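Entry type: protein chain
Record version: 2
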Amino acid sequence: MSLSDLISEVKNFIASRLRSREDLRVGLEVENLIYDQKMNRIPVNSGTTFSTSDLKARLEEKNSEKGIAPTLTMEPGGQIEYASEPHRTLYDLNSELKTYMANLFHIAEENNLMVSDLALEPVLPARNITIIDHMKYKLMHGRFAETGTHGHEMMLNSSSIQINLDYTSIEEAEKLAFVSDCLHPFIALLFSNAPFYRGKPAGKQNMREIIWRNTDPSRSNCLFDHDIKSPDGLLDNFSAYVLNTPTLFTLEKDGSVGTYEGTLGDWLGSLYDRGVLESEDIMTALHQIFTQVRFKHILEIRGPDHLPFGYELAPAAFFQGILRSPDTLEKVMEICKKWSSGDRKRLNELAQTVDFSCEVAGQTLQVWCEQFLSFALEGLTESGEKKFLEPFAEEFFTTGPFSLSIQASFEQSGKSVEQFLKDRWEEQKDFLGE
């Protein structure tokens, strides 16, 4: 099978679930780190103590009782991940998310657990965390020992919020991906929430962004970093990039996990030559791409940190305001098209530091962030969903990103990081229970 034929196969899969304008949906994925009362992470694997496996089973039971059906998965280091059903409005998404979070807090209270709303493990290095007993993740763990300095931290110690959007056409998909990729540096700054790293304040280091940029250069970072710099032909270029990426693992027809020495294109081509290539294989390949913006049969925006309780919906609202309003999308797209490659490279580099005073393309990062927040709020006004972003915007305009405001509270407390977080959870728990 030729490369061009494989590119068509991948592109057709990405475009396999186009929707009408009236039926567009938004989905959300939220990861949480879970601790016992001694600030030890609960184990991911089943054993003698309450584990993420136990938490997942209990949550699925309680979600069913409450009439919601999100997908729950366990991440490599024991993070519990909630993936919503796709919803037409932020109101519907918010209703499901609130029910899920109430269930999570209820089970945490039952089992004397602490739920973290930080985007990064604040104390322990990745080497102290036991990985899930799953071959796929063990293969990834081995790969990341060779490709970057922080891949294990990404797998075992980070948590994020991901937005999933569908689209009406290939052209629209390319526009949404281009704008989302251009905005990633501002997303990493606006939604930064990793105030501690290995038991100390992170200062102005934007730690989750730093970790992702040092995971695996062949499959992470921005589309821009893989020479995908324009909306024109973006899906062809993305598909070609996927096919040229080294294979991490394979999923065999019997459900087992295997290995393959070669690129994802080589692997998919070998399946085609044997007459056994299926759409599930293309999905397996797309799962091995970790760019901040990526495609499956939807667009995934993966840049936001996990945010403090009550703000989880803000990133989804931001992108609904920017990307779902035709007028706002065109305004932002025109701005993005004017940035030079040098501007975009500098923006991506600056996103690793929570310093809003730096200037790029004639404005400081602070002004750019405020401008894009204003665009998003303007776009949400059309849909009547402005309320889902306004509290975050007010907080950002007043105190800046959570990475810095939480550190400021910590410095005033005079406590150790562990004690500060324990006391913070007690305050949050009381507030959330009201």
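Comment: Residues 3-245+289-433 form a domain with the Creatine Kinase; Chain A, domain 2 fold (CATH 3.30.590.20).
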